[in-house]
Amino acid sequence: MFDAKIETLLEVISAGSYTRAAQRLSLTQPAVSHHMRQLEQEFGIHIFYKDKKELRLTPEGEILVKYARRALAVYRNARQAIEDSRICMSHIGVGITHTVGESCVPQVLAGDFNSRPSNPVAGVLAGAGWVDAFVEANGEDAEQMSFHRFEGDAYKPKKGTPGRIDYIFLKGTGIRVVSSALVKDCVGGKYPSDHYFLTADIVIE
Known about the structure:
Layout: H1 4-15, H2 18-25, H3 29-43, H4 59-86, H5 98-104, E1 107-112, H6 120-127, E2 131-132, H7 133-138, E3 166-171, E4 175-183, E5 197-204
């Protein structure tokens, strides 16, 4: 079992106070203070400066916290390795050449392009073998306007207004889009963004 005192120290650092750390750990504040005193006695240091307004680590305290974090990481890795061994699980690293990776490995590219499909960047991606998931699922003639300035379907686009903001592109062998749609959800007529979000159901075979 990982040292409870070290766990308490890291929680104090994360929470920023003894009180919040005690709440998170389901301990009393005196118990947290006791753990800190035990650590200070064990290492012969002061972990924090004596400042009632804020917790500030001493140089020795910073060293202790640095190694405490490493110890916690090692502990968690050990537990994971043991669990993996129990279910005969192994982690395999796969190396692949850049050229093969581009043509074979399934890839997904999603982002906020803030443009119309006629934008040159779309042509660059298409030329590199990327497939627009929305167009693939719905066809070239599907309504792609997603910008609405928080007005929803009542918005009347003006000349030069961006068309579809979000894009999802696919590339590689064995990956295909099942469906793709604009998410037009709102609450009480209020929208979470100035444009509809995009969703896509993708299958990797």
